[in-house]
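Hi R.,

Here are the chain sequences for the assembly we discussed:
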Amino acid sequence: MQAENLLADRTRNMGASAIREILKVVSRPGTISLAGGIPAPQSFPMAIIREITEAVLQKYGSEAFQYGLTEGFPPLREALAAYLETKGIAATPEQILISTGSQGVLDGLGKILISAGDRVALEAPTYLGALQAFTPYEPRYVQIETDDQGMLPEALDAALARHPVKLIYLVPNFQNPTGRTLPMERRLAVAEIIQRHDTLLVEDDPYGDLRYEGTPIAPIKTLAPEHVVYISTLSKVFAPGLRMGFCLAPEPVQRWLVLAKQGVDLHTSTFDQALAAEYLFGGHLGCHLPKIIELYRPRQQAMLTAMDRFFPSSFSWSRPDGGMFVWVQGPVGWDMEAVNRTAVERGAAFVPGTFFFAHPGEGKETLRLNYTMADEATLSRAIKILGGVFEEGAKVFQKGTSSAFRSSSMVSARC
Amino acid sequence: MQAENLLADRTRNMGASAIREILKVVSRPGTISLAGGIPAPQSFPMAIIREITEAVLQKYGSEAFQYGLTEGFPPLREALAAYLETKGIAATPEQILISTGSQGVLDGLGKILISAGDRVALEAPTYLGALQAFTPYEPRYVQIETDDQGMLPEALDAALARHPVKLIYLVPNFQNPTGRTLPMERRLAVAEIIQRHDTLLVEDDPYGDLRYEGTPIAPIKTLAPEHVVYISTLSKVFAPGLRMGFCLAPEPVQRWLVLAKQGVDLHTSTFDQALAAEYLFGGHLGCHLPKIIELYRPRQQAMLTAMDRFFPSSFSWSRPDGGMFVWVQGPVGWDMEAVNRTAVERGAAFVPGTFFFAHPGEGKETLRLNYTMADEATLSRAIKILGGVFEEGAKVFQKGTSSAFRSSSMVSARC
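And here is the predicted structure of the full complex:
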């Protein structure tokens, strides 16, 4: 049958995922991939996984395998309330909603809030998964300008003054893809702006615990609790394969999210929720998190050191205090998709930054590097390869001759 | 903030779930609930769960906790291809898509196929979860008449001739809520009809393995593979809390389902998929399924025997060959929501059948009974209580006096 004829209008917007194709190419043997966005398997608490599993079987027995409440497994909601308190966020267990990955909250918010044509404001660049969650609900994206310290509050204020916006999406800590963190003064400004415009902010915080330098900054949720949906996940501090996300939303939003979730998956895996509850209740996160940080900090350091040494002076990049990514900006006019094809041939790969912009064709001269999935020596080797490719391209550009790396449509840098 | 003002247009259709309120009421202590739709915890393979977990940790290690492919964990897709072969369904592992519960496929199909106003045809009555999955995408429902043997093919044919229909949804085996099974001759007729009209059929088969009498009937998927999305789940034969669903769809539909799923939850829990793969590969399903059947068969028998004894002659009901439910039809004019309130006061509860109809107000004289969650003696006691309530109501009705059980809007019986 001609199944394409059956597709809903919204499906035409969803498009094929170009980044998936890139990730397939770069996973070929012999290529060092800095393209992924996944935690190192060495960061998983495998040493205690049998202990946790046994504790769950002892404590909950068959209950851990039965249907559960859409809102979440009560012991996990209780453990997460205590966890959020350590971040200064006051929440009762009943206010917490468990989701199948934080992706589940993003989809739910899109479903309950976005009618076709509604405006969604987000950072330029932003998390690709948020675009994938929202796009099927057919919003118009309003990109908010950013600099080295993340979203510019005055740009947000101006955007909200111009048009009604259904929701604002931002990642305040060690953002994906830039690694940037929104400083306290900007958080205060954003909190004031969203309250003044009475607009909902989605504060997505998957990386906050992965801080290698400096001190934590209070979530915006603590500054404007009635206007913020705070989202997080255990993917980066326990195990991503368990798909364990959660959120704390204003009461009416939570109520509608629960209703949407009933239609999407009834509830998140009870067994996985019980494992997560045991991980938190057993105090394992407190013991294990420093190990994750000590795994990643030297990797980030090794990569930044190699970048200082091997990248051309015409390139600039972020120096994040935590997280999983470094954002690189090449000279205006470069096309990093073309550069990546050459880099892959030489044995190293990255993600072209253009995929992280809501509007196609922007950020062609940018790219994202991940440092969690390779050891220090491998990272240095990959950066040396990339540095060689960049130097070569820079020489060709300087001569003014045509270059395969040149962007066909010149776009101005956004960040 | 006034979060209600933020809601998308579609959210207004989602409405509060009346059945959830009913399930809360009937879970009060001292009430025997025949209202649920969940497997007995005694049906879970708890005796081998440690063995399976250990096998997963040995075989896959940290891989079982890492991000995975949206399409599903390869060993599980392989195991399910072999499982489907036992049902006569030919599938390669690559053609199988894993979902977070079969609910995940229903939501995905709604998302990729249903534009607002599109027609969806389904049995009257139908599975409530399908309505919850499809309704947010704003379809118009076309109810297809049913009798004791399920959907009437000629009614389906007439509906498809009248209007274009985006998809047809049916549960062919031991349907929820009726327990009815579509016989082979009707499956052949449905297969011919969907091919002639070039319409997509969603064949949802969660209960097929729970057969207590007779022999299995070939899935419609085997009769019209290019026009059928076959959906099933391990919820009824392994553990519902693991949220392990899957589907086999025509190639272009599967491709779009994968894209939709990326935005919804990235992928289903890797660990749970690995447990499911091990359950199937280890031959545990083959050993354990007969135990589940031997648990449920006498429960169903006890309930039907008690119904024969205690229910008034003006009532009729299904006698399913398997599954989890019996469907009861009371006299026209009764309002089973009112009856249930009285029954709960006397200590037994059911689900009023009206919730299983796409159009509000239909099926007021019907109800659904579940027999998996209580032992034989408890089931008999509950049926005796319900029989007493029904007999009492019947006497009041016969006298022609006003009755609290009388439906305010008389509707004709649909099944």
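The domain at 48-285 of chain A is CATH 3.40.640.10 (Aspartate Aminotransferase; domain 2). The longest helix of chain A spans residues 284-310.

Let me know if anything looks off.

Best,
T.
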